[in-house]
């Protein structure tokens, strides 16, 4: 299972790639996509939507279940990966390339984990 060190992680199995101090892309981890199985649909937030840390703002639907995605930050949705509308399965194929959404004007970013810290979370759940 892949856990790149150049991104940060959340206990809820999302990864975060900081573009700068106040902007980051968010996706789901390799562990999350493996647990979900084949992804068949992704519902993303609206660009310009103001979000508060912990809000449920997206859904990933697989052949097994629907999983809610929560925003790890307070901020504003600045981009979505609209390629996922036609190819949601690309999240399974390359979870660390196929991000879900981007948040700008970020605050509340204290809960991010390193790859090693996230590894411990995964081991506890396995």
UniProtKB/TrEMBL annotation:
Binds 1 lipoyl cofactor covalently. The modification N6-lipoyllysine is found at residue 64. Residues 23-104 form the Lipoyl-binding domain. PROSITE patterns: BIOTINYL_LIPOYL (PS50968), LIPOYL (PS00189). Keywords: Lipoyl. InterPro entries: 2-oxoA_DH_lipoyl-BS, Biotin_lipoyl, GCV_H, GCV_H/Fam206, GCV_H_sub, Single_hybrid_motif. One of its GO terms (biological process) is glycine decarboxylation via glycine cleavage system. Its cofactor is (R)-lipoate. GO terms for cellular component: cytosol; glycine cleavage complex. The glycine cleavage system is composed of four proteins: P, T, L and H. The glycine cleavage system catalyzes the degradation of glycine. The H protein shuttles the methylamine group of glycine from the P protein to the T protein. HAMAP family: GcvH. PANTHER family: GLYCINE CLEAVAGE SYSTEM H PROTEIN, GLYCINE CLEAVAGE SYSTEM H PROTEIN-RELATED. Belongs to the GcvH family. NCBIfam families: gcvH, PRK01202.1. This is Glycine cleavage system H protein. The gene is gcvH.
